[in-house]
Amino acid sequence: MAIINAIAHVVLSEGLEAKTYIDNRCEADAYEDWRSFILDEVNSPESMESVTGVPAEKIRGAARFFAKAPNGPNFLRPRVSEHSQGFPRWLWV
Predict the structure, then answer these.
(1) What is the pTM of this model?
(2) Cα-flanking dihedrals φ and ψ of residue 40, to 5°?
(3) 14 with 49: CB under 8 angstroms?
(4) Which of 42, 66, 67, 81 has its CA 20 to 30 A from that of 73?
(5) For 39-48, how does the pLDDT look when each residue is reduced to its tens digit (9 = 90+)?
């Protein structure tokens, strides 16, 4: 989940999130709690580089590419949905 947190960190810190979608579909308090957690420096691409083995700039590039795309595929794998937090994280992606 480290890579997902790092990607989310970039999306939020650069203001690339879908604000209208969030306003219409998320509970404000729960979203703010999650947002605060994700924006913690421990979730930055630089911090997660040593955990994931992926260079911070590649994480940033992937996050920007995904966030700025008009749409894109997202595939749920069986093992992802079996993880205790897998399905909620998949929904975020």
Answers:
(1) 0.79
(2) -60, 140
(3) no
(4) 42
(5) 999 999 999 9
